[in-house]
Amino acid sequence: MRASNLYAPTLRNTPAEAEVVSHQLMYRAGMIRKSAGGMYTFLPLAWRTIRKIEQIIREEMDAAGGQEICMPILQPAEFWQESGRWGAYGEEMMRIKDRHGREFCLGPTHEEMITALVRDEVRSYKQLPLMLYQIQDKFRDERRPRFGLMRSREFIMKDLYSFDRDEAGMRESYQKMYDAYTNIFTRMGLEFRPVEADTGAIGGANSHEFTVLADAGESNIAVCTKCDYAASDEKAELKPIEVEVEDMLPLEKVATPGTHTIERLCDFLQVPVEKTIKAVAYQTDTDELVLVFVRGDHEVNETKVLNCIEGALDLRMADESAITAAGGCAGFMSPIGIKKGTKIIVDPTVMHMYNAVAGANEKDAHYKNVNPQRDFTNEGLIVKDVRLIQAGDPCPHCGAPVRMTRGIEAGQVFMLGTKYSEAMHAVFLDEQGHEQPLVMGCYGIGVGRTMAAAIEQNNDEQGIIWPRAIAPFEVVVVPVNGKKEDQLAYAEDVYNELKKAGVDALLDDRPERAGVKFKDCDLIGYPLRITVSPKGMEAGTVEIKVRRTGEVQVVPREACLQTVQSLLTTL
């Protein structure tokens, strides 16, 4: 490919709407252009990287036993109604009707479609295990599309679905995909971590996110400082913090004017924050009131709260009128005195507290000497881990302190079990001729998001630094003056030799100044740059620069190919 024919409209200035580094650099490097909110056109450079990512994925999926198919993006509502997710998926689902009034959606994922396909074809245990995958566009109507390809409305995803006869088979398929994902992200040259994750709207028993470590990531990850435990903050399970046993003092109501925050309460009563109980009130999508209580220095994990409430799809902060109707008082709440039938969830750490301070459900009043084991006697009270993990918390596996880091979820694997097969009656006959539900798993990788994550992890002030495996071109050959026929001919000779040897190379034959071309090379992030100069031609040499390190070598022309091939193995 010649740069004079390449459609790569680079920019010197960063678009105002581009908030994160990957969005900024893909715009500036002439890789993407916005079509509408959360929708982007991939230009040639980006598409070359996308195709390389897809090829790595295909090779690993095929090696693990996957078979590629292609399902319709447009999905009939009936399948989703069978699974119970037509109403449950929420406003992110893009729904349409055809001319006959029949309802469809633009697929945000394909569990229902693949289950319907397999239930009509698989009859016997002899046809199992089965793994089918596709790479295609998905659609989700994000409330606030942002960060370029990180959170968009239309995106490319690889989704594979496994079908097994039992849980043991599902776990074997899950491990195959776990290993394949490890190979995929390793081959791409990315620093990543598989972390335990919440299953969310997909459902199922267990899940791992494959998270590319980067400061711009939306995922908060807890990583043990001793063992290999890692989990998203949504998923990380915490053991209760136990304290020294104290004699339980009598409950005492005290006036606490204007202390509707934990900070003000601690200042007013001169108590440590660890001796206070924080209340957070929510309402579900069905308007059910949910009161949650954690220790004053802890934060509520809304994902865990949602998982405690059967049938709830969403949470919002509760209206003050709903709190009052339940016998509570906003800013001064505790379970003491709340009306029967109100859903109350208390974190286990709270239940281990002695002589703490909590709201009296009365304006400007709190209780001192609250002992939850004695005083929280509400019927139906739920004691469950509902707090967010934070740095320094003990690892649930080994007890060592955890540290917090950030990452970008590039892939996720799920053990679905029989969630979809039972709902949609996808069954097979076992050896005894008895019907059994198919046991499923699903496994996704965001292709465009992986490209963005790679940039977030690999960049500097000049631009992108591509890992060799997914760079749009591995090498760029740059004649200092493309208008000089002898320089261009020398550069073409180098370029042709590289191409003949299978190196993915670009010839920058544009009649631009050398400085402009060099800046574009650094911005786009080609792993190696070969410069042809008059002085080098006279000496029979070329200059090779490594983008990642800035290392420059001047080598004899005849050693160029060997040097390039050697350097590429390290990138």
**CATH superfamily caption of the largest domain:** Bira Bifunctional Protein, Domain 2
Which spans have pLDDT < 50 for at least 5 consecutive residues?
none
> How is the CATH topology of the largest domain named?
BirA Bifunctional Protein, domain 2
What is the CATH C-level name of the largest domain?
Alpha Beta
Q: For the terminal residues, how far apart are their CA atoms?
A: 22 Å
Query: Structural class, from helix and strand content?
Result: alpha+beta
Describe this structure in words.
The protein has 571 residues and is α+β, with helices and mostly antiparallel strands. The chain has three domains: 16-71 and 107-236 and 404-456, 2-Layer Sandwich (BirA Bifunctional Protein, domain 2), CATH 3.30.930.10; 252-383, YbaK protein; 473-568, Anticodon-binding domain (Rossmann fold, 3-Layer(aba) Sandwich). The chain is built from 16 helices and 31 strands. Strand 5 (94-97) and strand 6 form a beta hairpin. The longest helix is centred in the first third of the chain and has 21 residues, at 167-187. The protein starts with 20 loop residues before the first helix and ends with a helix.
What is this entry, summarized?
With 571 residues, this protein is of the alpha+beta class.
Write the layout of secondary structure elements.
Blueprint: H1 21-28, E1 32-36, E2 39-42, H2 44-63, E3 67-68, E4 74-76, H3 77-83, E5 94-97, E6 103-106, H4 111-119, E7 130-139, E8 154-164, H5 167-187, E9 192-196, E10 207-213, E11 219-224, E12 230-232, E13 252-255, H6 262-269, E14 277-284, E15 289-295, H7 302-308, E16 315-317, H8 320-325, E17 343-346, H9 348-351, E18 356-359, E19 365-370, H10 372-375, E20 382-383, E21 402-417, H11 419-423, E22 427-429, E23 435-437, E24 439-446, H12 447-457, E25 459-460, E26 463-464, E27 475-479, H13 485-500, E28 505-507, H14 514-524, E29 528-532, H15 534-539, E30 541-546, E31 552-556, H16 560-568
Parallel strand pairs: 3-7, 15-17, 17-20, 27-28, 27-29
Antiparallel strand pairs: 1-2, 4-6, 5-6, 7-8, 8-24, 9-10, 10-21, 11-12, 11-21, 13-19, 14-15, 14-16, 18-19, 21-24, 22-23, 25-26, 29-30, 30-31
Helix pairs in contact: 1-12, 2-5, 2-12
